[in-house]
Write a structure and sequence with these properties.
With 215 residues, the chain is an alpha/beta fold. It is built from six helices and ten strands, in the order ββαβαβααβαβββαββ. The protein has one domain: Rossmann fold (3-Layer(aba) Sandwich). 35% of the residues are buried.
């Protein structure tokens, strides 16, 4: 599902969390983020930022960004495309599909949420998507991503649910198995050539949180 969501008034006095978090299901885990708050702060400097979310629609996330930032939100569920190509055995054409799906004009977006989508892309598709996202960002824009650093087979997609500025809940759903595309720090930086690394932290889960800024 893709869509555009817009809020007209920023609620500066609202608490950081848009709503009370739902009770955790057995398949859910919580994580504390030091990088995600920097992403939110970067967008806060804009009066009416435009955000591109590459994950599935999460109602509480849309409310969170709407209330905190009074922003326009484009949601493009690239994970749905990843799964469709996996089921059809067409991963080799995934990169072109993802790039074609993002129809926003160049330099029209202030923030991009990649989540962990690059873990599921092959070595050819990842750079294609990264170049497209770099082109979409405005000067001063921010891009947030998570990159797994351990080899292994991915059998679940992660739906990231924002509970507070520094708190994310991760809900798993079944995925057609694929070998994780492990990227070194050098690989990640090269892939996003044209952006500067503002923050990069390796979590205990062996996931690297990275915040890029466009100079």
């Amino acid at each position: 599902m893709a869509g555009l969501f817009k809020w007209n008034a920023r609620k500066d006095q609202e608490p950081a969390a848009a709503a009370a978090p739902a009770p955790a299901a057995p398949s859910e885990t919580g994580t504390t983020s030091k990088v995600f708050p920097r992403f939110v702060a970067a967008l806060s400097s804009q009066p009416a930022p435009i955000l591109l979310d590459l994950g599935p629609v999460v109602g509480s996330n849309i409310s969170y960004f709407g209330d905190r930032l009074s922003c326009k939100i484009y949601v493009e569920d690239l994970f749905a495309d990843v799964e469709q190509h996996a089921r059809r055995g067409q991963r080799d054409t995934l990169g072109q599909t993802l790039v074609a799906r993002l129809t926003q004009p160049d330099e029209s977006v202030d923030g991009i949420l990649c989540w962990d989508v690059f873990d599921f892309l092959d070595k050819a598709s990842g750079p294609l998507l990264a170049r497209k996202l770099t082109a979409l960002l405005r000067k001063g824009g921010a891009l947030y991503g998570q990159f797994g650093s351990t080899q292994g087979e991915l059998t679940q997609y992660s739906r990231f649910i924002i509970e507070a500025d520094d708190r994310l809940r991760v809900r798993g759903s079944a995925a057609t198995p694929v070998k994780r595309n492990v990227l070194t720090t050098r690989d990640i930086n090269k892939m996003f050539e044209g952006l500067n690394v503002s923050e990069s932290i390796l979590l205990k889960s062996n996931t690297r949180e990275t915040l890029f800024r466009k100079p």
